[in-house]
Q: What sequence folds into this?
């Protein structure tokens, strides 16, 4: 018998995560609503200023020069308000904004003020005020605090997760089930680029093989993922397909009448230190993939979209200035994005800190003026009717001083 | 313990094992060589605790399975023919209604069990990987398994390779039965176990071979197949161009006639070795200048025993061991030491392994060897604990995608053992690393780097891992670092 030798693509197995559990937002159900909530964790630190640009700030163009998105130029930004504009790679999100189905919260950050990805991601997902080992995440604890729903369909009340490793935000006392999409998130261009850099410093033979194999040198010059030759890493089409499949399938499950009501998944790749490609390169393609994923969610939610809130957050932002390699380094404040038919949308919420040197956090990062926990607590409270005390003590421990930002949803 | 001890410990664990797991670098840093020598004296070293079928049982199971399949197909054909005859008078059958078609199309594919031969191979593969990863973890505290014995098993299994493409049922059992019991014993016994194993006799066509003047040869007008004899001389013992002639090959092939198996379709001892006198070429044979009287199967034993003692065999094995463990172009003094140890101990493979570990030449700080795909995968699983969450199927697929499918080498000389063979596949390892890293939870990638590489890790590698975008990426970068790819 000849065993089947898989192609490289077939190797890319399932990953990503979604979950649900036996607990339901019963108070919301009593009001005649059936709310859905999906948390999307963007790992790697999303550049908030490149996603939603403060085009009305007089210091904006001076700050980022050619990399500043504006209403003019080859890739004009999409108008949100007179002051803020969306990256042109996100027409679907723009449409949702215009239909009052999206909210941008800017100059927003978790309470974390250092710049380590691992600690930052832990804090974002655990909901703890300081970096510390945690076995559970805020979303799981929020749901565990809701009254058990007494589902009729035992399948719908079973816990549910995608892929082998559940993101921390979804781990905890509420049980988790998994589901696996067709493909794993493939090794990214970023991973290949990091290895190439390492090999160039330490192992010339390996470096040469990797260069030959993936024609990375040319791509480095141009910063254009579309030029990427296989094998060695996925092209933008694969990233796009992965994002849409993971998010779109999460929506399919959430949309089912007896399906889960809460889910989470993580999308990696936002650590744009080199050749960030804000308008046409790497970040633009990632944001485009994310934009497609949002459309896939809306489409697959169907009628349930009106009961849906999707919350996108990242561990921290990036430097306000562009660095010496046409990228940005680890920063502080960034954007949080909300999308869904249950939002009172069409708003950019920001206590804008300004972009003058003195206005920047430690003279380098966008200053945080809104606590991400306030946004998430507001959504959990209004949309799912989570209890105030539980939010302050269990979901986001030690956050009593961080008032929930209410009024974000139609149910508030 | 000294920094030098730590470095030697890490080096030794990668070079002679599958890399460290847990605190092994610190545990053996006081005396890395001594710890590796002691690893060879562990009780039951090389044995697999298992409930896997023997090669004969597996061959009979697969034979039964295939026979049942054939019967099912024949039966289905009969039913279909009968149905065709009836269909003239029938109205539309229920299955052809659009509704039913739609329901069938919507039904999710049911993940069935793989066919029996693949199940057997997967069970064998899992036991083999567990010997490197899972078992090592469980016993780490009591008896730190440094991986040296498993590395020797893998080396000898590749030296005496068969292919599961040709004989899927027995691939794993062959390694357990012919290789494992002997990797720390006498080469002569290993050689006899291998050349008389039904898997090898089938793989190299000796089951087809018969003496032209044997009873069966005369009756069936058939004769010799030289394959096993030639490969035994060229690959398994003396080495190519070591002085044997075509006449030696032919004579040796005559000697080996009658070494065969019982056809696996026989329910009693099918798939097991048998010496069948009716196939054996009568008369004495001269191999390498020595004449062997016709003593039946003992004639073959005698030739193999002499081949095992040949200085050419010692030299051949010494060279292969040094290339495998130390360098693509190993120091000639090391090869000489290993060959001498082999000769002086009459092919005691534990003594040879001790010589390998004890030789200064084996501890050169240059880490030039590129780990083979299987070795690299096993090392990554061992370090990260990913084998707990990754089923054996994807592990085997990964190994195949990297060009080294388990027990399926393209030719009897086995998989290549040099960098040139594997380096072009390194970019493909990135996807495998990414896949595996996505399936493990690692709290602290830097602690994992410390455990896996310790003082071997360069500043660049430390920085690269520390600055990774995610923990998963950090783990992928760690196992893709030059220090982890090489040994």
A:
């Amino acid at each position: 018998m000849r065993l089947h030798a898989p192609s490289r693509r077939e190797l890319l197995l399932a990953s990503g995560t979604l979950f649900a559990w036996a607990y339901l937002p019963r108070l919301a159900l009593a009001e005649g609503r059936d709310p859905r909530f999906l948390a999307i964790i963007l790992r790697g630190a999303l550049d908030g200023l490149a996603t939603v640009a403060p085009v009305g700030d007089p210091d904006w163009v001076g700050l980022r020069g050619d990399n500043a998105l504006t209403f003019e130029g080859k890739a004009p930004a999409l108008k949100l308000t007179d002051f803020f504009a969306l990256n042109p790679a996100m027409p679907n999100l723009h449409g949702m904004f215009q239909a009052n189905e999206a909210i941008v919260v800017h100059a927003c950050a978790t309470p974390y003020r250092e710049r380590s990805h691992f600690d930052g991601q832990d804090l974002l997902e655990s909901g703890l005020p300081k970096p510390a080992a945690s076995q559970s995440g805020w979303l799981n604890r929020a749901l565990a605090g809701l009254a058990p729903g007494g589902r009729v369909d035992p399948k719908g009340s079973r816990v549910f997760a995608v892929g082998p490793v559940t993101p921390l935000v979804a781990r905890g006392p509420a049980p988790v089930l998994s589901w696996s999409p067709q493909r794993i998130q493939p090794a990214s261009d970023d991973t290949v680029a990091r290895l190439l850099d390492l090999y160039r410093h330490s192992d010339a033979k390996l470096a040469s093989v990797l260069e030959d194999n993936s024609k990375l040198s040319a791509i480095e010059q141009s910063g254009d993922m579309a030029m990427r030759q296989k094998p060695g890493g996925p092209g933008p089409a694969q990233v796009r397909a992965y994002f849409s499949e993971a998010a779109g399938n999460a929506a399919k499950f959430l949309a089912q009448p007896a399906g889960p009501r809460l889910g989470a998944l993580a999308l990696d790749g936002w650590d744009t230190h080199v050749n960030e490609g804000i308008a046409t390169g790497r970040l633009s393609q990632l944001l485009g993939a994310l934009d497609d994923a949002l459309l896939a969610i809306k489409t697959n939610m169907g009628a349930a979209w009106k009961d849906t809130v999707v919350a996108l957050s990242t561990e921290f932002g990036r430097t306000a200035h562009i660095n010496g390699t046409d990228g940005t380094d680890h920063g502080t404040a960034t954007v949080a994005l909300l999308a869904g038919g249950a939002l009172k949308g069409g708003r950019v919420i920001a206590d804008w800190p300004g972009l003058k040197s003195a206005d920047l956090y430690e003279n380098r990062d966008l200053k945080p003026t809104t606590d991400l926990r306030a946004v998430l607590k507001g959504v959990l409270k209004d949309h799912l009717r989570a209890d105030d005390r539980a939010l302050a003590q269990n979901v986001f421990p030690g956050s009593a001083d961080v008032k929930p930002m209410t009024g974000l949803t139609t149910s508030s | 313990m000294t920094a030098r001890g730590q470095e030697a410990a890490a080096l030794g664990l990668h070079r002679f094992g599958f890399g460290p797991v847990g605190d092994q670098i610190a545990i053996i840093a006081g005396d890395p060589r001594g710890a590796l020598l002691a690893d060879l004296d562990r009780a039951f070293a090389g044995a697999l605790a298992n409930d896997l079928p023997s090669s004969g049982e597996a061959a009979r199971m697969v034979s039964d399975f295939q026979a049942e399949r054939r019967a099912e197909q024949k039966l289905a054909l009969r039913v279909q023919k009968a149905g065709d005859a009836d269909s003239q008078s029938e109205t539309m059958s229920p299955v052809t209604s659009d509704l039913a078609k739609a329901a069938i199309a919507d039904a999710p594919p049911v993940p069935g069990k793989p066919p029996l031969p693949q199940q057997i191979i997967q069970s064998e593969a899992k036991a083999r990987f567990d010997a490197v990863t899972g078992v090592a973890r469980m016993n780490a505290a009591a008896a730190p398994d440094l991986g040296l014995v498993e590395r020797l098993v893998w080396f000898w299994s590749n030296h005496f390779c068969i292919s599961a493409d040709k004989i899927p049922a027995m691939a794993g059992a062959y390694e357990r039965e012919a290789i494992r019991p002997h990797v720390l014993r006498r080469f002569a016994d290993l050689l006899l176990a291998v050349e008389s194993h039904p898997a090898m006799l089938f793989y190299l066509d000796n089951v087809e071979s018969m003496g032209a003047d044997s009873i069966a040869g005369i009756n069936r007008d058939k004769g010799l197949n030289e394959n096993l004899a030639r490969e035994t001389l060229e690959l398994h013992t003396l080495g190519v161009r070591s002085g044997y002639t075509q006449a030696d090959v032919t004579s040796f092939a005559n000697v080996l006639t009658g070494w065969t198996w019982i056809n696996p379709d026989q329910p009693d001892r099918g798939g097991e070795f048998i010496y069948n006198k009716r196939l054996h070429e009568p008369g004495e044979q001269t191999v390498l200048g020595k004449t062997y009287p016709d003593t039946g199967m003992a004639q073959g034993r005698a030739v193999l025993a002499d081949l095992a003692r040949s200085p050419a065999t010692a030299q051949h094995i010494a060279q292969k061991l040094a290339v495998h463990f130390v360098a693509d172009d190993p120091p000639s003094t090391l090869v000489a030491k290993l060959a001498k140890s082999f000769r002086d101990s009459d092919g005691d493979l534990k003594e040879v392994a001790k010589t390998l570990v004890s030789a200064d030449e084996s501890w050169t700080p240059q880490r030039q060897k590129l780990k083979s795909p299987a070795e690299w995968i096993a090392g990554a699983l061992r370090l990260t604990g990913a084998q707990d969450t990754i089923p054996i199927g994807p592990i085997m697929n990964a190994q195949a995608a990297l060009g080294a499918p388990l027990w399926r080498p393209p030719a009897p000389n086995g998989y290549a053992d040099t960098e040139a063979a594997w380096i072009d596949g390194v970019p493909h390892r990135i996807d495998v690393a990414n896949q595996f890293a996505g399936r493990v939870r690692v709290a602290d990638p830097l602690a994992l780097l410390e455990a896996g590489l310790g003082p071997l890790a360069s500043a660049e590698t430390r920085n690269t891992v520390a600055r990774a975008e995610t923990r998963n990426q950090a783990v992928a970068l760690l196992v893709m670092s030059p220090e982890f790819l090489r040994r």
Summary: The longest strand of chain B covers residues 259-261. Residues 55-86 of chain B form the longest helix (32 residues). Confidence is low (pLDDT under 50) at residues 89-111 of chain B. The beta strands of chain B are 259-261, 273-275, 285-287, 290-292.
